[in-house]
Amino acid sequence: MFKRLALSTLVAAAALSGCSSLNTTPAPKVNNVIFMIGDGMGPAFITAHRYDRAGEPGRQVEPTIFDQLLVGMAATHPAEDTWVTDSAASATALASGVKSYNGAVGVDTDKLPVRTMLEQARKAGMHTGVVATSEVNHATPAGFVANVASRRMYEIIAEQYVNKRIADQSMLDLMIGGGQRYFPREEGGLAEQLAEQGFQQAWSLEEMTKLDALPAMALMSDRGMPFAIDTDTPKRLSLMTDKALELLDGQDKGFFLMVEGSQIDWCGHANDIRCALGEMQDFAKAVERAKAYVDDNPDTLLVITADHSTGGLTLGSQGEYAWLPTAVNQVSRTSSYIAEAMLAEPERSVASHWQDHAKMTLSESQLAAIEEARERQVAGEGRYTLSNAISKAVADNSYTGWTTSGHTAVDVTVMAYGPGAEQFAGYQDNTDIAKKLMGLMAR
Ligand SMILES: [Zn+2]
User: What is the pLDDT of residues 24-37, one digit of tens each?
Assistant: First the structure.
């Protein structure tokens, strides 16, 4: 009775004061933020990962880590005359809450610098890090750290990673990824400047595992890292995420960490479903590591989304009611890896090469198409003629559909876990994700 009376009094008071909500829960305490971006990871990639794990149709389907943490969807369009964004405009939106043009890195439509959540974190005394399987200065991580008119300004972006100052501090305590070529190790080069700033340095995945204090950097390949399934360490991003969390853990004022599964996008551009499933497995494992960190550190908020979808991936093609991840998994390498092997030994038939890397049976006409593609590429026609022909055979035999070699405008999923996760529920614009995160991170 008392409770009901109290509630009705409260309702009356709320009505009188014009307050629209009875929710008086204090803002959640968010000490650390882990923001994970699957580049190009449209909804179909997440579905593909689920059925890839299940295998044969009819088997028990377990929710993936993405399914478990799903809370909403986001629109991704840029601020120009197309609904289809690139990674730079989307990274800028996700990092700052400001929509910009395709190619923009941390700048608005007037090419003026925007304030990103990583900058905000820095100003608040938080530790900061970026992890990516692309070059660390590629468009998505760059959108959080740098401010340049074009994503192609790789050298200037790298320079800003090293020398841009916020509140008298450099932008980053930690960078892990590829891109050695942009941080030269010669005298006076950016790598040497970072060493002078006290950065521990690693140049391979193995050296990375030995980093033991901040500031630290690991640049493990000349450009982007090799595709997950083309290496001995297909779970490289989860190792990198583990190391980042180990180094950032226990900071008084908390940390902001951005982790990108960069190459889901590259597999999408190549229309290579085997490549995409490998990158999704690695990214999923990295998300599982981040979720485990939140379980141990409940003042940490984990948000996961994509910047856009790539390739127009869909699961089902040619009028068949079928999609066969088991067929995809009969191939053990990316199409580009297999194509390189076929080009390196042109005297061997493509059929013989194929057997080195795949158990999938190809038809005579598919083998002929691949042989012909190899001849055309050797004759100078295109850089991807052969790998595209291989990707097409794998797609056709698994009923995988692709609509484009570019990006698409479909909405992307939003996953969140930890304090404030409920704020990301439902439909939102990608800029809203940034605004909510910046609000939750405000000190
Ligand atoms: Zn892309």
Answer: 567 789 999 999 99
- Catalytic residue at 87? yes
How far, in Å, from the CA of 284 to the mean position of ligand 1?
19
Q: Where do we find the tokens 């809370």?
A: 71
Using the mean position of ligand 1's atoms as its centre, give its distance from the Cα of residue 120 in Å: 27
Residue closest to 214 by CA, chosen among 183, 170, 181, 180: 170
Ligand 1 centre from 249 Cα, in Å? 32
Q: Which residue in the list 8, 17, 20, 87 is annotated as catalytic?
A: 87
CA 397–ligand 1 middle distance (angstroms):
25
Distance CA 247, CA 366 (A): 49
Per-residue pLDDT tens over the stretch 266-310: 999 999 999 999 999 999 999 999 999 999 999 999 999 999 999
Q: Is 307 flagged in the annotation as binding?
A: yes
Q: How far away, in angstroms, is 23 Cα from ligand 1 center?
A: 41
* Predicted local confidence at residue 25, as pLDDT: 66
What digits encode the pLDDT tens for the residues 383-403?
Answer: 999 999 999 999 999 999 999
What's the CA gap between 93 and 97, in Å, rounded? 5
- The answer to whether the annotation marks 39 as part of a ligand binding site is yes
- 312: confidence class by pLDDT, cuts 50, 70, 90: very high
End-to-end CA distance of the chain: 40
> Domains of the chain by range and CATH?
32-313+404-441 (3.40.720.10), 317-401 (1.10.60.40)
* 127 in a labelled binding site: no
pLDDT class of 23 with cuts at 50, 70, 90: low
192 known ligand binder = no
Nearest one of 188, 149, 145 to 166, comparing CA atoms: 145
The CB-side HSE value for 100 (13 A sphere, CA atoms) comes to: 33
Has 260 been labeled as part of a binding site?
yes
User: Would you give the DSSP letter of residue 279?
Assistant: H
Which pLDDT does position 251 carry in this prediction?
86
Q: Tell me the mean pLDDT in the region 225-252.
A: 96
DSSP string, 292-359: HHHHH-TTEEEEEEES-EETT-EE--TT-S---HHHHTTB-S-HHHHHHHHHH-TTS-HHHHHHHHB-
In the three-class reduction of DSSP (H, G, I as helix; E, B as strand; rest coil), residue 438 is classed as: helix
User: Are 162 and 154 within 8 A, CB to CB?
Assistant: no
Beta strands in 147-265 (DSSP E): 165-166, 169-170, 174-178, 200-202, 216-219, 255-261
Residue 1 has pLDDT above 70, yes or no: no
> pLDDT tens digits for 49-84?
999 999 988 889 999 999 999 999 999 999 999 999
